């Protein structure tokens, strides 16, 4: 890396002042500064892209390891389920033969099971059909006497309506 100290920067500035001249030096300095800024932004973008690529590769590796573990768990569960089904069929095979020979459960148990078979739900009742119409069927004279608001007023209309009248002198 280039080692730039204060003395070297001062020497570069003096040479630039002599070569370029004092009239064009500020414009050249702005141009050089803009170009350096663009170069720094470009380098930062390249670094960010490289970091994103590295993170993406890490995520892909992590995804593959998780998928592998999921496949292992799935095969283990399926083998365990198959084993359970096999054992269950062996155990229930002996029970099916015993119940067939006895003729099923006794009549008292049969009645208890049939009564528990379907739950009883309350019957649906339709709501009153015209409740909104009946609510609005109050006569206008009654609403006016009882003080029920029938129309909405805007804020300005309410101020104009209820503003105290000024006393003229």
UniProtKB/TrEMBL annotation:
Pfam families: TatA_B_E (PF02416). GO terms for biological process: protein transport by the Tat complex. InterPro entries: TatA/B/E, TatB. Its main location: membrane. Residues 95-129 are annotated as: Disordered. GO terms for molecular function: protein transmembrane transporter activity. GO terms for cellular component: TAT protein transport complex. Keywords: Cell inner membrane, Cell membrane, Membrane, Protein transport, Translocation, Transmembrane, Transmembrane helix, Transport. It is found in: Cell membrane; Membrane. Gene3D superfamilies: 1.20.5.3310. It is a single-pass membrane protein. Part of the twin-arginine translocation (Tat) system that transports large folded proteins containing a characteristic twin-arginine motif in their signal peptide across membranes. Together with TatC, TatB is part of a receptor directly interacting with Tat signal peptides. TatB may form an oligomeric binding site that transiently accommodates folded Tat precursor proteins before their translocation. The Tat system comprises two distinct complexes: a TatABC complex, containing multiple copies of TatA, TatB and TatC subunits, and a separate TatA complex, containing only TatA subunits. Substrates initially bind to the TatABC complex, which probably triggers association of the separate TatA complex to form the active translocon. Belongs to the TatB family. This is Sec-independent protein translocase protein TatB.
